[in-house]
Design a protein that fits this description.
- The strands form six sheets. Strands 3, 4, 9, 10, 11, 12, 20 and 21 form an eight-stranded mixed sheet that branches. The chain has a five-stranded antiparallel sheet with strand order 15-16-17-14-18, with helices on one face. It has a three-stranded antiparallel sheet with strand order 13-19-22, covered by helices on one side.
- It is an alpha+beta fold and about 450 residues long.
- It starts with 9 loop residues before the first helix and ends in a 25-residue tail after the last helix.
- The protein has ten helices and 22 strands.
C-alpha cells in the first residue's frame, strides 16, 4: 500500500483513462516508489484500479478531478445539499459512496432500515470483485472478516478440496483450470459484515450515512434533483443533490419516481429460504438435493432453501409454516423450527431496467437488474456497477458529464449476459423433462414464457 505522501503519476493514468474511454482494450502499468502496478486489462471495468487511490495525497487528483476539500473532507454548504445522494445503504450503495469520496464528492447515503436489520445473507465475492477490492485496499479487511465468520469453516474447506471451481445449475462440474485472475479464490461473507467494512471506509473518508431514512419522492431539473426523504417518525425533509443514484433494490423507489420501466419475465419457480434451528429429529441432509418435486439446499450457516415449479406463491407475507410445508413437499420430511431468524420468498423473475439513466438520476445494482440468485452473481454485478459508475459520476460533479452515458453502454451488456446465464440455470434446474426447455438467445426477445427446443 502506498503512503499518503506518495505522488501518483497522474499523466500516465489520464492517458489510460482516455484510451479506455474510447473503448480500447488496453493493458498498462506504472511504477510508484519502485512498485509495479498493473492496470485493468478488460474494457468492462473502466475505473482507476489503484491500491493507493483511497489514501491519495490531499488535494492531489487527476487532471479534471480537482478535489474540492483537501481538508475537512465531507463538509458541504449545509446539511441538505450534496453532490450525490445514494438511495440504499447496502453493499452497492456503500461501494459507490467509497468511490465518490476518493474524488472529494460530497455524498449522502440514505437507508430505510436500521444497521443490521436486513435479512441475513451470506454473499459470495468472486475473483474479479476481489481484484477491485484489492486495488481499493479493502481486500485485507474482507479476508480478515471472513476468518472471523463462524459456521463456514467446514464449507470453505470442502470448496477448497473439491476439483470443481463452482457449480452451474447445481452441477459441480466446472473445472478449476487456468483462470486469468490475480485472485484464485472467492470469499463467503455475511451481508452485514460486508456493509460494516464498507460503512467504515465510506464514513472514514467523509461520506454521510443516515439509517432509518428513505426516499419518498424526487423532482429533477437541469441543475439538480430535489429529493424528499422521510424518517422513521414520518418527518419529511427535502434534500438538494446534483445527482441521485438508486441502489435501493429490485423494488426501487428511485426507479419508480424516475419513470424508468422494468420489463422482464414472469416467474417460473418459487423459492423459500429461512435461517434458524430445527426442533425435534433432524434428518435433513446438507448440501444440494434434487428430486422430482424440486430442489432442497441446506447451508452450513443454518440456511435452508427450497425451489418448486408450477406452484404459485401466495400474496400473503411468508411465514415459517409456509417454508416447513415447502420442505415437506420437496423432501417428504416434516419439520418445525425451534427459532427463526428470518424467512423469505423469491422467484426467478428476471428484469432489466429499460435505461440506467434519465437526466440526473441513475440506477445501479438490483435497482437496475434482478434475476434468480444462482451462483451469487447479483452482488458482484452490483459491486462492479458501482466501481464503473463512481469515477464517471465524480467527473460529472466536476463539470464533465460526458462519460456518464458510457456507464450504461458498458454495464448493461454485462447484466444482459448474467440474466441469460441465470435463466439458463433456472431452466436446467427444473425437475423432469421440462428441463430441456431453453431460454431465448437474445434479451430483446424476452417474454413471459420459455421458448421450447424441438
Amino acid at each position: 500500500m502506498c503512503s499518503p505522501d506518495s505522488r501518483i503519476p497522474w499523466k500516465s493514468i489520464v492517458l489510460y483513462w482516455r484510451a479506455t474511454a474510447r473503448g480500447a482494450a488496453h493493458q498498462g502499468e506504472f511504477r510508484l516508489n519502485g512498485t509495479r502496478s498493473v492496470l485493468f486489462r478488460s474494457t468492462a471495468f473502466r475505473s482507476v484500479p489503484l491500491r493507493c487511490v483511497a489514501s491519495m495525497h490531499p488535494g492531489v487528483g487527476p487532471r479534471g478531478f480537482k478535489t474540492r476539500r483537501a481538508a475537512g473532507a465531507g463538509m458541504h454548504s449545509n446539511d441538505n445539499d450534496y453532490d450525490v445522494l445514494i438511495a440504499g445503504g447496502g453493499p452497492v450503495g456503500l461501494t459507490l459512496a467509497c468511490e465518490l469520496r476518493m474524488y472529494g464528492v460530497s455524498t449522502l447515503v440514505v437507508e430505510r432500515l436500521a444497521p443490521g436489520a436486513n435479512e441475513p445473507r451470506t454473499l459470495t465475492i468472486h475473483a474479479r470483485t476481489l481484484e477491485i477490492m484489492d486495488r481499493r485496499d479493502l481486500l485485507t479487511d474482507f479476508v480478515a472478516a471472513e476468518k472471523l465468520t463462524a459456521g463456514l469453516d467446514e464449507y470453505r474447506e470442502r470448496l477448497e478440496n473439491t476439483s470443481a471451481r463452482g457449480h452451474f445449475a447445481g452441477m459441480f462440474i466446472l473445472g478449476r483450470g487456468t483462470v486469468a485472475t490475480e485472485q484464485h479464490r472467492e470469499l463467503l461473507l455475511p451481508r452485514e459484515t460486508i456493509e460494516s467494512v464498507l460503512t467504515r471506509r465510506a464514513t472514514g473518508t467523509g461520506a454521510v450515512v443516515r439509517h432509518g431514512v428513505e426516499v419518498v419522492g424526487l423532482v429533477q431539473n437541469a441543475d439538480g434533483v430535489a429529493v424528499t426523504v422521510e424518517d422513521a417518525q414520518g418527518s419529511s425533509t427535502v434534500i438538494r443533490a446534483g445527482y441521485v443514484v438508486g441502489c435501493d433494490g429490485g423494488r426501487s423507489t428511485v426507479r419508480r419516481h424516475a419513470g424508468i420501466d422494468f420489463p422482464g419475465t414472469e416467474p417460473q419457480l418459487v423459492s423459500r429460504m429461512g435461517l434458524g434451528s430445527l426442533a425435534g429429529p433432524d434428518h435433513l441432509p446438507m448440501g444440494w438435493q434434487r428430486n422430482d418435486h424440486g430442489w432442497f439446499m441446506r447451508m452450513p450457516d443454518g440456511r435452508i432453501f427450497t425451489a418448486e415449479w408450477d406452484h404459485l406463491a401466495p400474496q400473503t407475507p411468508v411465514t415459517a409454516e409456509e417454508l416447513c410445508a415447502s420442505i415437506h413437499r420437496v423432501t417428504g420430511e416434516r419439520v418445525q423450527f425451534a427459532d427463526v431468524r428470518f424467512v423469505s420468498r423469491f422467484t426467478d423473475s428476471t428484469r432489466l431496467a429499460s435505461q440506467y439513466r434519465t437526466g440526473r438520476v441513475l440506477l445501479a445494482g438490483d435497482a437496475a437488474h434482478v434475476h434468480f440468485p444462482a451462483g451469487g452473481q447479483g452482488a458482484n454485478l452490483g459491486f462492479q456497477d458501482a466501481v464503473n459508475l463512481g469515477w464517471k459520476l465524480a467527473a460529472a460533479c466536476q463539470g464533465r458529464p460526458g462519460l456518464l452515458d458510457t456507464y450504461e453502454a458498458e454495464r448493461r451488456p454485462v447484466a444482459e449476459r448474467v440474466l441469460l446465464n441465470t435463466r439458463a440455470q433456472a431452466a436446467l434446474m427444473r425437475p423432469g423433462p421440462k428441463s430441456t426447455r431453453c431460454v431465448p438467445c437474445s434479451p430483446s426477445s424476452w417474454t413471459s414464457t420459455w421458448s421450447t427446443t424441438t
